[in-house]
Amino acid sequence: MKFVLAFTNRTGGSGEDAEEGQERAMKLLAKFQPSESATIHQWVTRCDGGGGFSVLETDNAENLLHDLSIWSPYIDFQVYPVVDVMEASAMQQKAIQFRKSID
32 and 70 in contact (C-beta within 8 Å)? Predict the structure, then answer.
């Protein structure tokens, strides 16, 4: 299944706290490897430094939870399951036909 992750940096604490958190997150990033069941297609950051987005695929929700839990002290996530537009269009056409078949 394909997902889009939107993430924002956790806020709170002093500037010094934020700096320490950022340094720790950079150390984690240098060693981080996503679970083998995950394929990251894109992982981008916002230019304002406030967060970013990732497009990934996995069929293992437990591994996704594990990977996101590594970052949870530093990042808030919103996880959206998504479908490619052409696949969604075909499903939507079937739904339209079903609705039309009911009087």
Answer: yes
Contact 82, 3 (CB under 8 A): yes
The position carrying tokens 């002290």 is: 73
Q: How many CA atoms lie within 13 A of 39 on its CB side?
A: 5
Among residues 86, 82, 83, which one has the least CA distance to residue 5? 82
Q: Is the pTM of this model over 0.85?
A: no
CA distance linking residue 3 with residue 5, whole number of Å: 6
User: Tell me, what DSSP letter sits at residue 26?
Assistant: H
First to last CA, the chain: 35
SS3 of residue 13 by DSSP: coil
pLDDT digits 0-9 by tens, 38-84: 999 999 999 998 999 999 999 999 999 999 999 999 999 999 999 99
**Which of helix, strand or coil describes residue 87?**
helix
Residue with structure tokens 């990033």? Answer: 29
- Can you give the pLDDT at residue 103? 82
